[in-house]
Amino acid sequence: LILLVMLVGDSGVGKTCLLVHFKDGAFLAGSFISTVGIDFRVNAHTFPFKVRICCRIWDTAGQERFRSVTHAYYRDANALLLLYDVTNKASFNNIRAWLTEIHEYAQQDVVVMLLGNKAESSHNRVVKREEGEKLAKEFGVPFMETSAKSGLNVELAFTAVAKELKHRTMKEPAEPKFQLKEYVDKEMRTAGCCHS
Ligand SMILES: Nc1nc2c(ncn2[C@@H]2O[C@H](COP(=O)(O)OP(=O)(O)OP(=O)(O)O)[C@@H](O)[C@H]2O)c(=O)[nH]1
After folding, report:
1. What digits encode the pLDDT tens for the residues 97-137?
2. Residue-wise pLDDT tens digits, 133-153
3. What is the dotted CATH code of the domain comprising 2-191?
4. With a 6 A CB cut-off, is 13 part of the ligand 1 pocket?
5. Residues 6+ apart with CB under 8 A from 120
6. In which order are the strands placed within the sheet that holds 39-42?
7. Ligand 1 center to residue 127 CA distance, Å?
8. What does the record say about its membrane topology (predicted)?
9. Domain-wise residue ranges, the chain
């Protein structure tokens, strides 16, 4: 069984960098090369550490002109990591539009998680953490801030989604239902990484 996780959000919010960090543990510095259409990055073997499922992660293009390509893939996605950039207000304001699209094109039970990326760049920050939290609450999705540069919550974001998908797939009635939001909150409290 292959589960499909897609990274979506405006161009330049850091989707490719987040994935590269997760995969290679390194920040992709230097020039910004925009993703063209759908880009396959990671295959099944990225999750052997804690979660034994196969996850394929797709990095999508944020640019408007590739949107129709992305739409076509939404319906196959099991989970969507929706990113905005905390140093770019427009990318945050566009989250509502992204969520509307997701509701329109994705599967009804798709797992969505909102990520405020570039959280380490405190000098350029224009979106407060509380704003992200509020928006996520409004739409009933889990939220965390991440940084592909410092590595903040990168592994947690992917692991939490993978765990949720695993629990859904296993459907073991004896086990209590996995609560993605509670898991994320707990992990962040434990790590003490809530404040950036
Ligand atoms: N400071 C900081 N910069 C970041 C971070 N993540 C990405 N960047 C920078 O943001 C720019 C865009 O990153 P990408 O990962 O290519 O963005 P993308 O969302 O994949 O863009 P598209 O492919 O066009 O959709 C690059 O110049 C990165 O170096 C981060 O966490 N912190």
Report:
1. 999 989 999 999 999 999 999 999 999 999 999 999 999 99
2. 999 999 999 999 999 999 999
3. 3.40.50.300
4. yes
5. 147, 149, 150, 152, 196
6. 39-42, 54-59, 2-9, 79-85, 111-117, 143-145
7. 16
8. Lipid-anchor
9. 2-191
Does 62 contact ligand 1 (Cβ within 6 A)? Answer: yes
Residue 124 CA to ligand 1 center (angstroms) comes to 14
> What is the 38 CA–ligand 1 centroid distance (Å)?
16
CA distance 193 to 188: 6
Rounded CA separation 21/42 (Å): 12
Angle at 186 between CA 183 and CA 192, to 5 degrees: 140
Give the span between the Cα atoms of 3 and 53, in whole angstroms.
8
Q: Which residues contact 50 (CB under 8 A, 6 or more apart)?
A: 159, 163
pTM confidence score:
0.85
Spatial distance between the Cα atoms of 8 and 101, rounded to a whole number of angstroms: 11
Question: How much distance in Å is there from the Cα of 18 to the middle of ligand 1?
Answer: 8
**ipTM of this model?**
0.98
118 burial level (CB within 10 Å; 0-12, 13-18, 19+): buried
Enter the DSSP assignment of 176: P
Residue nearest to atom 30 of ligand 1 (CA): 118
Task: Count each helix (H run) and each strand (E run) in the chain, helices first.
Answer: 7, 6
